[in-house]
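Example record used in the benchmark description.
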Amino acid sequence: MTIATVLTVFLVILGVMLVFQAFWLFGTALFPRMVGQARDRYKTPIRTTLIGLAVVVPTFFIGFVWLLNIDNIIVKIIGLVIGVVPLMLGAIGSAGLCQLIGLGLPAPGDQSQNWRRVWRGGWVLNFCYLLPVAGQVVILPWGIISGCGAFVTSLSGRCNDRGNDRGRGRGGSRAPRKSSAPEPVAKLDDDSPRSSRLQRSQIPSSDSENKPSQRPRRPRRPSRPKPEE
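Model output (structure tokens):
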């Protein structure tokens, strides 16, 4: 193996890794809410993977196995689109997995620059893809298939949220809260010490009666200016 072959393999692998990073950052920049929902879908990985299998496997066989074997250029193009689009959506949807990995590797500045989580998690996932057997045969296909499932479920969850918002806006006005009844005022016994204190405070004192009432002061007249001699 020559140095040229080593450099060729290295550059091809690096290019593929950068392409994956571009897809993940593309999805994060244009669909941040969808990527956040896809991250939540990865908390149930088995369900997300099964939904991805239900989408990717039929489209793969229809596009690459059936339509590409027909001797018609238009049909082959349609089959290529049917087979490639779910894989691209899976690559974008797996940005939720990268974000979930990045959340486990916190760093200062993540709150203001959310894309850094996807960037760090993407490099971790890319290096996992480089494993000789487990990475290329298990982790890479699982990442794309589960990413497609996360993308589809996040879109369905977003449509449900919009439907709920419309229902609330049209006729789903919330019922007003019932105001709590006022508490009854506790009556005081005449013999209680509190009532006696209140009665004493209401009785005017003798000092206030003996004080003479002050007469209002008359306003002073303005002084006239003296005539000049």
